[in-house]
Write a structure and sequence with these properties.
The chain is an alpha/beta fold. It has 3 domains: about 120 residues, Glucose Oxidase, domain 1; about 110 residues, Enzyme I, Chain A, domain 2, CATH 1.10.274; about 300 residues, Phosphoenolpyruvate-binding domains (TIM Barrel), CATH 3.20.20. It is built from 24 helices and 16 strands. Strands 1-8-7-3-4-5-6-2 form an 8-stranded mixed beta sheet. An 8-stranded parallel beta sheet has the order 15-14-13-12-11-10-9-16. Helix 1 packs across helix 6 and helix 13 packs parallel to helix 15. The relative contact order is 0.10. Bound molecules: phosphoenolpyruvate (PEP) and magnesium ion.
Length: about 575
Amino acid sequence: MITKKGINASPGVAIGPALVLDTEEYRIPHRTIDPAQLPAQVRNLDAALDASRQEVSELRLAAARKLGDETAAIFSFHEQFIADPKLRAGVVDLIEQHRFTAAYAFAQVMNQRQKLFRNVADPYLKERVRDLYDIEKRVLRHILGRTREDMTRLTEPVIVVAHDITPSQAISFDRRLILAFAINVGGQTSHMSIIARMLGIPAVVALNDITTDVSGGETIVVDGSNGIVVANPDKETLNRYREQQREFERFNIQLRALRDEPAVTRDGLPVQLLANIEVPEEVSRAIEAGAEGVGLYRTELLFLSSPRLPTEEQQYEAFRAALRAAQGRPVVIRTIDLGADKLAPGMSAQQDHNPVLGLRSLRYCLIHLDMFKVHLRAILRASVEGDMRIMFPMIATVMELRQAKATLADVMEDLDEEGIAFRRNVPIGMMVETPAAALLAGAFARECAFLSIGTNDLTQYTLAVDRANERVAQLYSAHNPAVVRLIHQVIRNARRYKVSVSLCGEMAGNTLYTQLLLGLGLQRFSMAPGDIPAVKRIVRSTTIERCRQIARKVIEFDADRQVLNYLREELRSIVPEEDA
Ligand code: PEP
Ligand code: MG
């Protein structure tokens, strides 16, 4: 039994067989084979080892020519490793003794070697673990004949164990068959985590080497609420988690009963709870969970889930579907926020040294105007279908906002000329997710119909901490006093200029922050649909007076630890059973 602690990315407990995907999505079949096929498996292994050795030998020569001996030495290590007769013998042994497939046997042997290397004290050898991953991937690619796993064709429920999952992969999985995710990298607000929460699937991220600690087919437990993964659990552990699973379900059933109750504080302040969605189909789930509308429609998935850019018609259909499903409730469509870890066909992050600070999001759109205009046309055409609002992401300067609005005005003119209907008075707002936008919130509020605070990015940019990097995840906290003060500043300015303000980062769905945000003056929250009932419960259990006191106190703190401990206490005192 192995227990690993990562970061709790999406709550809930799941128990099931692991499906291990390596970074290139290869699925390693764990099945025993017919004895008659054993020689074929060994031949397959030999051919794969040969081809891999040949490849690294060519790489070594090329590296020596272009990069010098030191780099070439890395490939020498690969070459020797692959050519080592002991490696082959170990794999053949597993194939013959246990009737494993060549891929599974090879992955097992590599798994053992990686563990050995990780446990040695010598830092040089420790570093070689990365090389072993490389070698494993290369040889497996040959053994498996480069067939990529088609995750849309799963036949049994599994827990996906992977280095990372792209948003488009996550969305293409069959939700009924994915019990949970256990992921090597990432943080609480990386897109993988956001999507898991949106889908209501438990997930733990930042597990480092979970892909080597677990083999395909092994039973694992994913405790997404506490960020723990247990591989090969013993009986007692299994029973304990089964009980936790039942408790979680009971709690959710209780929460569901709140669906039709209003989100209003005990002293009568109404609060609007909206949903974040990524695909139009999510609207009905959001309404089911009690959402009063959509506060953030992340439109990027349309661009990520296909090898070609979506056409105007495809985009229009998606936006129209979302508005129709909302049945008159507000839907805030955010214009595409591509770049960094969300790359559309034709985009390359490698051109930027720092992709999160690079040509992304609205900046990318303002350079690729043809693509942006098609997108805006599709949005505007769908605007006649309901209560649509348009929101621009990632703005740092007033000029960017003006340029975006001017582009929208151009597209409106084109539509007018073509006699195509759209809602002329569609409200236009922006996300406040850079410290610059937060500090100048007043100036922006004068030029917008609404502001929405994107704390996922605002935290990243304020603290200079990559939101998707597990190595600095302990520094990433939305409750850092610097972030809290910026949020306060935005809310105050929105009020001063009488524009509406919401918060749509992951913070909005975390009950730890509900009272603080209410106290800072926020009355509009947008979150993953599954988070709505729990937040509503907090709203209904507190008073605005109490929330204001909490906010006044937090504003005075200097350290995020103080804020965290204090907010935990305050949460416990209104809902003691909450595991804060
Ligand atoms: C945010 O940055 O807080 C946000 C809501 O946008 P995203 O998570 O899509 O970057
Ligand atoms: Mg953002």
